[in-house]
Amino acid sequence: MRAALAALSGLIAGFCALCVAELAAAAVRPEAGPVAAVGGAVIDRTPPAVKDFAVRNFGTDDKLVLQLGILVLLALFAMAVGLLALRHRRVGAFAVLVFGLVGAVSAVGRPEGSPSDALPSVVGAVVAAGVLYLLAGRLTPVRSPSPAAGKTETGPAPASGTGAGTGPAFDRRGFVIAATAAAAASAGAGYVGRRLTASVQAGASASRADITLPTPDSAAPAVPRGADLGVRGISSFVTPNKSFYRVDTALVVPRVDAGSWRLRIHGEGVARPLTLGYQDLLRRTVVERDITLACVSNEVGGPYIGNARWIGVRLADLLREGGVKAPSQGGPADQLVSRSVDGMTIGTPVETVLDGRDAMLALGMNGEPLPFEHGFPVRMLVPGLYGYVSACKWIQDIELTTFDAYDAYWVKRDWARQAPIKTESRIDTPRPFASPKAGTVPVGGVAWAQHRGISRVEVRVDGGDWHTARLGAEDGRDTWRQWVWEWPATSGHHTLEVRATDGTGATQTADRVGTVPDGATGWHSVVVDVD
Question: Most buried residue, 92, 129, 195, 392, by most Cβ within 10 Å?
């Protein structure tokens, strides 16, 4: 009984730590909470192969899985410390403090960390250590007078009040009262912390709700008829915001108030450093473009790609306003390092940003201000580059430097410094292991080669001849294209393969390569059984 209650003591102490830390984090920032801090530290130190495994198997739920894993480990640790405190109260309490120190170090050591970020973990650990010490004390055997010699001894538990059954007696009533009080007070602290955090985030939500996106000075043309082939099973030409993929390292989605947001542009070759607010961007020339984004973690045939209509300000205009020149024109900087409010750094070639493509600081997505999950208030986009070298969300700083002088976040983790998007194609229908009926079966999907465009898509069956698919109308070379081939399917087991040719005439390679270091290659294939 005492061992079970000791483990419960550890769980209650752990619960207290999390709740009190959440209250303290409300006074600092939500990202400083111990679960977010430790989770962020784990992400920072995760090898690329493990990261790819998580993205591939858990998709956009990878962060939820990580947080649940941390909570499970915390619960196991808490129970173990509770059992330790049953025999050694001070050692158990000290172990809690050490664990809190791990959270504090993790919070301060994050790219965006500051000394104040240690506060939630430290306060939570101190409270948890005190609670564990108190509860372990209530489990200490009661010393009763010896009837023979007037001495004290540990006797069997009385019928009620201090214990029952066999084993040493302890203050059960006192334990129940203390445990209940600690849990209730901690739950209250956690509730207050959540309410305070929600009130702070409400300001950011209100700032987003108050925004009316301007009519673009350079509007995107209407999506041409036939761009969406209307074939059932093919991804819609425009990806709805709620369905757009999200791959990043933020366990807590930053909620930034547009009114207080600022962007600084500085560094090598910036003759006139700039500091801009959200309204400053709205007053500038605003453009609207259809651009397809892709994640470098996308496996062949994977889902981490989407197409949207973006509205924003040309990044090249801002850089030239600051006096920035491309390296080919004598500029000293060849890398643009964008920094997010959560500490993420992304390195982008300056030459690419200034080569005339529609690189932008995006303000809106599919007719509305950016969703928080996709970078509100401002994110960066560079057509033709994978997101990890171009698409900084929640951006707050742009520094001009060189690739030799600085390695951005993912480059430090064995990803390539430069990563243009590769020519790829995907079969959306029929789905793998589908059982279509014999006859004409539409085989369709999407193909992409941003900033080069798609000129041809071909399909083959069981390694036979290639057949040219019908392409959807081209919206622009920065977007994907739908395609379909009417397959005269015969009964049996078949393998379908697809390949694309980009606007330069280069055909997608068959060589199967993983995502690290600069994107996957290979032909997507689907196996079906035709009835």
Answer: 392
Angle, helices 62-87/34-44, rounded to nearest 10 degrees: 120
pLDDT in tens, 38-76: 888 888 888 877 877 887 788 778 888 888 898 999 999
Copy the structure tokens of residue 421: 């998007």
Query: Measured between alpha carbons, how far is 59 from 245 in angstroms, rounded to an integer?
Result: 9
CA dihedral 441, 446, 449, 450 (to 10 degrees): 160
Total-model pTM: 0.86
DSSP character at residue 357: S
Question: How many DSSP H helices and E strands does the chain contain?
Answer: 10, 20
pLDDT tens-digit map of 215-240: 999 999 999 999 999 999 999 999 99
Q: Give the number of other CB atoms < 10 A from CB of residue 250.
A: 20
Segment 329-388, tens digit of pLDDT: 999 999 999 999 999 999 999 999 999 999 999 999 999 999 999 999 999 999 999 999
CA-nearest of 412, 521, 514 to 46 is 412
Yes or no: say if 474 and 449 are a contact pair by the CB < 8 Å rule. Answer: no
Alpha-carbon span 480 to 474, nearest angstrom: 8
Tokens of 105: 């170090």
Count other C-beta atoms under 10 Å from residue 165's C-beta: 9
Check: CB of residue 366 under 8 Å from CB of residue 240. yes
CA–CA distance, 5 with 180 (Å, rounded to integer): 13
- List Cα–Cα distances, 511 to 275, 329, 419, 500, in angstroms: 46, 37, 18, 14
**Tokens encoding 147:** 């009837």
Per-residue pLDDT tens for 138-191? 998 876 555 544 454 444 444 344 544 456 788 899 999 999 999 999 999 999
Can you name the residues that pair with 481 across neighbouring β-strands? 447
Residue 213: exposed, middle, or buried by beta-carbon count in 10 A (0-12, 13-18, 19+)? middle
Candidates 156, 246, 277, 202; CA nearest to 26 is: 202
d(CA 85, CA 146): 27
Alpha carbons 275 and 279: distance in angstroms, whole number? 12
* Tokens standing for residue 525: 């294939």
Whole-angstrom distance between the N-terminal and C-terminal Cα of the chain?
62
Angle made by CA atoms 60, 66, 68, in degrees to the nearest 5: 110
β-bridge partners, 347: 337
Alpha-carbon separation of residue 62 from 35, 246, 392 (angstroms): 15, 11, 20
CB 33 within 8 A of CB 46: no
- For 82-112, the pLDDT digits (tens) are 999 999 999 999 999 998 999 999 889 888 8
438: its two tokens: 């014999």
189 SS3 class: helix
Residues 86-103: b if buried by 16+ CB within 10 A, e if exposed: beebeebbbbbeebbeeb
